Amino acid sequence: MNTTVNLAGVELKNPVMTASGTFGSGAEYGELVDLNRLGAVVTKGVANVPWPGNPTPRIAETHGGMLNAIGLQNPGMELFCQRDIPYLKQFDTKIIVNVCGKTTEDYLEVVERLSDEPVDLLEINISCPNVKEGGIAFGQDPKAVEAITRAVKEKAKQPVIMKLSPNVTDITVMAKAAEAGGADVISLINTLTGMKIDIHKRTFALANKTGGLSGPAIKPVALRMVYQAAQAVSCPIIGMGGIAGWEDAIEFILAGATAISVGTANFYNPRATVEIAEGIEGYMKRYGVEDIRELIGAVS
Amino acid sequence: MVYAMKYMENARVSAQEALTEEIFSMYIETEQIAREAKAGQFISVYCKDGANLLPRPISICEIDGSRLRIVYRVVGKGTKEFSGYQPGDTIRIMGPLGNGFPLEEAEGKTALVIGGGIGIFPMLEVSKQLTGKKNIVLGYRDQVFMKEAFEAQGPVYAATEDGSQGVKGNVLDAIREEKIGGDVIFACGPAPMLRAVRDYAREQGITAWISMEEKMACGIGACLACVCQSKETDSHTNVHNKRICKDGPVFRAEEVEL
C-alpha cells in the first residue's frame, strides 16, 4: 500500500500535515505525538524580524469553530533558524516553513534567509486576515497574488506553496493567479473573517474586533473551494479547513487535494494528526486502495 | 527551561457538589495527572459536546494521591456541561499544565496567601503545601465560599465588597485594616486585584508571585493565544510576550505588565 504523495518533487510519507499557526514549530506537540508519523510539519508564520502580535483576547470560541486574531506573533527568522529548524530536523518528517511579511521585501528577506537551511518547502502566507499590512492585502487581488508569487519564485531555492485566502469572490481567480506567477503548489483555505460580540460586556470578543474562523464549522466551505481550485489549476493542492478526522481528510483528497493540513483539531485533540494518518490507511485497506494517488481528485 | 511531562487521560468523576448556585466542586480520579501535579498548575478539560471545541483551563484546587479537585464557576456552555457530570462519568483532561507556585520561596518566611473570587480555589492547595508560617486573605464580592477549608490551614482573613462578612472592601483593605504581614506573597485573582497586590508588594519591598488567566486554545504553548506582556524580551517568543499556559500561569509580579 502506498501512502506517499509528491509535492513539487518533495515526497511526503503520507498526506497529513499540520496547518500553520496551530502547531508552533512542533516542539509543544512533540511531547504528545510522534512527529515521525507526519507527512510534514508546517511551522507558524515566520517574518524577517520578531512580531509581537495583537492584543488579547486573541481567541474566541464559536459554535463548532473558533475565531483567532493572534496577529502572526513570531520570534523572527534568526531565532527560528537557530532553534526551531534544528528541533524539527531530529524527526523523519518534511519541514515546511510558513513565511509572512508586511511588504514584498519582507517576504523575500525571509525566503533568502531560508535558502541554505534544511527546509523542504516554503509556504507563503498571503492570506492572514489579522494583520493590517501584508497578509491578506496581497491575497485578495489577483495581480498582487501573481506579482508576489513571481517575486518569491525568483529568489526561492525551495519549491513554493502559495497559501490562499477564502475571503474572495472567486477562489479560482486567485488559484490561477498563483499558478501564473509560478507557484509550485497552492494551499487553501486560510481562515474566514468573522466576528463575535460579548453581549454581557457589550464588547467585541476579540481585541482585534475581527478574527479568522476555523474548525469543523468551515469544512464545507473549504471543501468546496478546494474542489473549485482543483478544477481550475494543474499544480498540486494542499487542502485544509476544519479537518478533524480521517473522514474529512479523505473528502478533501477526493475533492482534489494531494495533501491535507490539520489545524484547529490539534487544539482539542493533540493526537488528531496521527489518528488521521492511521485512519487514512484504514480507509485504504477497507476499500482495497493500493495507492493513495488513486484517490486524489477521484470525485469530479 | 525544562517542562514537566503532561498526560491526556479519560479520567473518572468521583464526586461533584454545588458550593453555590454557580460554583461547582468536582473530584476526579486520575492515572498520572494528580501524582505529578503541583500547587498552582491547571488542567485542560474537554467538552463532550463537539460544538464547544476548546478545552477549558481550570485550576487545580486540591491534590490528594491520585485524586484531583477542581472548583469552577459555570460561565458558559462548557462549564455548564461539566456541572452536570455525575460520579462514574468520564472526563477528558490533559495536565498537569503550567508551572505552579514556587513554594520553596517561602522557606523560613511568613507567606501571605491571597485569593480573590474564583482565584481563591488554586490557593487552597498552596495553603496546604505551605508548611511554615502563613496568613491567608480571601476576597469575595458578596457570597463567601470555601472559607472553612482554608481555616484548617491557617489564620484566614476575609473581605467582602458588600461588607456582609469580614472587612468591607477588597483583599488589600483587609490586609491594611487587619495589619496582616508576610515576607512573600502568593496570589490569584482578577487583574485589578493582582495590580493592587503588585503595588503592595513593591511598597513592602517583598516578592509577589501571581497567577494569571487569559483565553486559551491549545493550553500547551503552541497557539500563542494566551500571552501576557513581559517587561523583558522573553527568550522563547523573542518579543515582550510570555505564554500564560506554558511559562505561567504563575509569574513574579515584576516580570509582567499588569
Q: Please give the alpha-carbon distance between the first and last residues of chain B.
A: 24 Å
Q: Tell me the number of helical segments of chain A per DSSP (H or I, 4 or more residues long).
A: 10
Helix content of chain A: 25-40%
The biggest beta sheet of chain A, please? 8 strands, parallel
Number of domains of chain A: 1
The CATH homologous superfamily of the largest domain in chain B is named: Nucleotide-binding domain of ferredoxin-NADP reductase (FNR) module
Order of helices and strands of chain A: EEEHEEEHEHEHHEHEEEEEHEHEHH
The average pLDDT score of chain B comes to 96
Q: Would you give the CATH topology of the largest domain in chain B? A: Rossmann fold
CATH topology call of chain A: TIM Barrel
Q: Rg of chain B to the nearest angstrom?
A: 18 Å
For the termini of chain A, the CA-CA separation is 24 Å
List the chains of the largest interface with their residue counts: A-B, 37 and 34 residues
> DSSP strand (E) fraction of chain A?
15-25%
Spans of chain B of at least 5 consecutive residues whose pLDDT stays below 50 are: none
Order of helices and strands of chain B: EEHEEEHEEHEHEEHEHEEEE
Morphology of chain A: globular
Structural account:
The complex is a heterodimer of chains A (about 300) and B (about 260). With about 300 residues, chain A is an alpha/beta fold. Chain A has a single domain (about 5-295), classed as TIM Barrel (Alpha-Beta Barrel). In chain A, helix 5 (about 140-155) runs parallel beside helix 6. The mean pLDDT of chain A is about 95. Chain A contains ten helices and 16 strands. By secondary structure, chain B is α/β, with parallel strands linked by helices. Chain B folds into three domains: about 5-95, Elongation Factor Tu (Ef-tu), domain 3 (Beta Barrel), CATH 2.40.30.10; about 105-210, Nucleotide-binding domain of ferredoxin-NADP reductase (FNR) module (Rossmann fold); about 210-260, Dihydroorotate dehydrogenase, electron transfer subunit (Dihydroorotate dehydrogenase B (pyrk subunit), domain 3, Ribbon). In chain B, about 15% of the residues lie in helices and about 35% in strands. The two termini of chain B are about 25 Å apart. The mean pLDDT of chain B is about 95. The interface of A and B includes residues 53, 64, 65 and 76 of A.
